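Consider the following assembly input.
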Amino acid sequence: MVVDCPSCGGKAVVTLLASDTDLPRRTFVARRMVCHACGATREQALTPRGQAADPFIGLKARLRAETRHGDLIAWNEVHLDYLEQYLSGRLRIETPDETGRTRNKSVVSRLPAWAKSAKNRDEVLKAIAGVRLEKL
Ligand SMILES: [Zn+2]
């Protein structure tokens, strides 16, 4: 997850402190933010079972494409790339992975309808390009 650093406003990255954690447990594990600009750090402790951690640990998501219809939030650069490719139509065919699941299907299905609407495409892509320019 990429967030705005609470100290300097620079690019900070939130990572899980236990990298080998299996997927269902990832919701709960401790996270650490490290700012790439000033080196500030912030940690969020393991949350109790049943209580999901805030993936942005209470900080502001950095990669927000702001449009008239709402904000489209990308978790990180890979996600931003994916959204851009998907919305520009360069990623029409979803390829199932080895488990038979369609890669990133959930990402796309969670996109708001206005973001997927063809008539808003230019505006959304322009906002994404702006995020790339200003925030990465
Ligand atoms: Zn900073």
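Residues 64-135 form one domain. Ask yourself how this observation constrains the way the partners meet.
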